[in-house]
What we know:
Structural class: alpha+beta
Helix content: 25-40%
Number of strands: 29
Low-confidence stretches: 427-431, 711-789
Strand content: 15-25%
Shape: globular
Amino acid sequence: MAAKNDLVIVESPAKAKTIEKYLGSGYKVVASMGHLRDLPKSKLGVDIENGFEPNYIPVPGREDVIDDLKKRAKAARTVYLATDPDREGEAISWHLMELLELDPKKARRVTFNEITKTVVLSSIAAPRDIDQNLVDAQQARRILDRIVGYKLSPLLWKKMKRGLSAGRVQSAALRLVLDREREIRAFTPEEYWHLDAKLSRSDSETTMSVRYYGDGEKKRELHSEEEVNAVCADVENAPWTVHSVKRGERQRSPSPPFITSTLQQEASRRLNMPPRRTMSVAQQLYEGVDIEGRGTVGLITYMRTDSLRLSEDALAAAAGYIRERYGEAYYPGKPRTFKTKAGAQDAHEAIRPSDVRLSPEVVRKDLTAEQYRLYRLIWGRFTACQMSNAVYDNVAVDAECARHHFRASYSELKFPGYTAVYEEKSDEEDEEVQKKPLPNLQEGESLRLRKLEREQQFTTPPARFTEATLIRAMEEKGIGRPSTYAPTISNITGKEYVAKEGKYLKITSLGETITDKFMESYFPDIVDLKFTAHMEERLDKVEEGELPWKQVLEDFYDGFDSELTKAEASLEGAHIKVPDEVTEEVCDLCGRKLVVKSGRFGRFLACPGFPECSFTKPIVVEMPGKCPKCGSRILKRTSKKGYTYYACEKVSGKEEQSCDFMTWDVPVKENCPECGKTLFKLSGKGSRKSFCINDQCSNFLPEDKRGYRKKPAAAAEESGETAETAEQSAEETKSVARPGRTAKTTKTTKTTKSANTTKTAKTAKTAKAAAEENTETPKRGRKPKVKDA
């Protein structure tokens, strides 16, 4: 047994608390609270001329922590450095050893892939030396990024404006976003048509819908109305028969367990959780949560990983749990293994629950809402990946008429398998699959044509990246590593190089200018995606001990320094102007097209005629579809209480263009097949069925059948969501100044309930103009009655 004064150093207090409980009184576990030694912020901190020698210093403000650790380390027999099990964690342990002046024989490195008693005790029993290859790989990355950032940023400040930054990974990520925007701009829509036939049996009025497939059994697309008319002329009076009926069984396999990138993608898509927040909550689950009856427990394995490997113990535990909880049929008979992609570090297991028997329902009362939702996602994905396939019965019908073939298919779940635990849903439902069962048809059976329906469509450009799809693109192209995805996205959005419009990322004029006029023009290697991926591969070779870390820096710096010198010479006396981002929105006062500006409260629309015209308004997010009442655009808006609702763009209070359509329901891009008006769906996460709100339409869905959740009267009263307060919200909105050049308020002291913030006359004028976009919000409490369409 180790001496009582053995010291274990971890990074966070939560982690320290969990580990000390497992180790007992023979150990003292303390937290370093992150980095204690780093490069200085005020200067480059790297001696390039002397072989890229870094000048590490103690982090300012951490002197008390350093002194305390030095005293504890001096009195301890052994110091266990138990920082996170990745490159950065290894580097922190090395910095601690150097900073605390520890003898390498006294400083021992331990890592915990999961914080459970078994893993903690076994790791302490088998410590190792610090892995210098891991440390060197992290040093190379840190110094590389420092050189790029500290050499490029000052040049950006001189040639554009202060406060800007350029980085190795962030510049490549920004290039991805800009390339997608260029694709969208260069896209030319192409016309195509859907032709559906409503068919029935000769002795039945029940119809089924089949879609045009092609001539004979060869697929053909209809590209013009003339082609559609020709097909319709051929089939309108000709006999219809069932050409073929294919019945079969289809199996669907579960997805692999999460790695860092897929966890961030799925949390963003399903939970609407930003990547940085996802990693923060995952860190809490990894470090430990107080569970009733068990104490502090680490619920998941380490969350920064690119490996799909699972331990034998975890696979055995999952097998036992699935058989016991769901039955023998739900276990495939042997453990599932998944192949990790080429180039992955494979240093840790995939992300999984540390104990599969701690189901989300068992621990729910001990978790916050965010912790529960993320843990449920991780637990469900891992458990499902070890379960049997889902089995579906498939039916495909091919109807023939005058050599033209029309097809329909239907799929029905036969055996749930893994979907009993983890339902995988796509963002868009497959339009080609029938939503209701097909009749039991036989080959050669005669059919009757009831109706032909045609719909003109146009191809759409590729969608802008969301946070989830940008992470996927970065992973596919080898840009960054698991630990860099979330900080990179936070950085480019936080500096307004990229703006979020709904869930989509759109490059701003500032971001485009930096990438196009500065980085691509003068530093093409930094934004070259293949070059960036190759640099990551070289860092991996450093970690594997195949390449000296300073050699990586030397090879990079020769070309970079040459580009920097040329850029400084080319930009001598020049200034790169960031053009205004012109929108299609028109100034209500003078008719000019509004431009996007940035202020202390974020981005907003302003008239370019300032100071002659000081009109401002919030940036609007246009939704798919059209207003069912007047046909204008539908805009996404936010009420004073922070709730999202949707309103016609003409809900502005101006009588000459007024429209009163507002709803809590989300407009979708599909139109009602009966009346042609925009369909809506309930707000919220996950897949929701769309419905028609036009009460003159045969597809109209009444409010009481839409699935609205009614709030109890007591709860509504407590939250203040009454009809009266909702009605007041619109009036109060008028007195809130939007971000703009002249929007200022004077500070006041809260004295009585009736005390209001005073404003200057200039502020009131600007506020009135800015608030015209939000003059009214739908009444909250119960779902508002949508105005008749």
